Amino acid sequence: MSVIGNTAIAFLTYALISTGSSAYFLAMAIGTGVGQTAASTALKAEVSTAAIYSGLTRQSTAVTFSRITTTLTNDTISAVATFTLSTGSTGVITVGEVCVANSTTLKTGAMVFLGDFATAFPMVGGDSVKTTALTQWK
Fold this sequence. Notes:
Blueprint: H1 6-17, E1 27-31, E2 64-68, E3 76-84, E4 93-101, E5 111-123, E6 128-136
Antiparallel strand pairs: 1-4, 2-3, 3-6, 4-5
């Protein structure tokens, strides 16, 4: 039987969020769909650049990545971002999903973690949501 050593887990989490890595994760996105699986390659309905979604599109510069300790030293990646729907946006957007990806381009790249919010929630112009995505490596 082969296993990943404890120190290797810390190295892997470092490599996934380090800018020196060729496939590091650098962006967060939210969407209006739900129901992804481990085989999903994209959010069900990532918000687009349409005016109704102004301020909610995929973010990279506003994402804070870090490693935290859950069980082993630095075994968990934390990604935090705040999405704000522009005050000029009209209508209601129902947000149901979030992902962390290695591309800043809408609907592209690999996703390291993705999931549905416990409860989808409505947003109107001026609303903000701060999302924290955690993934622990074992």
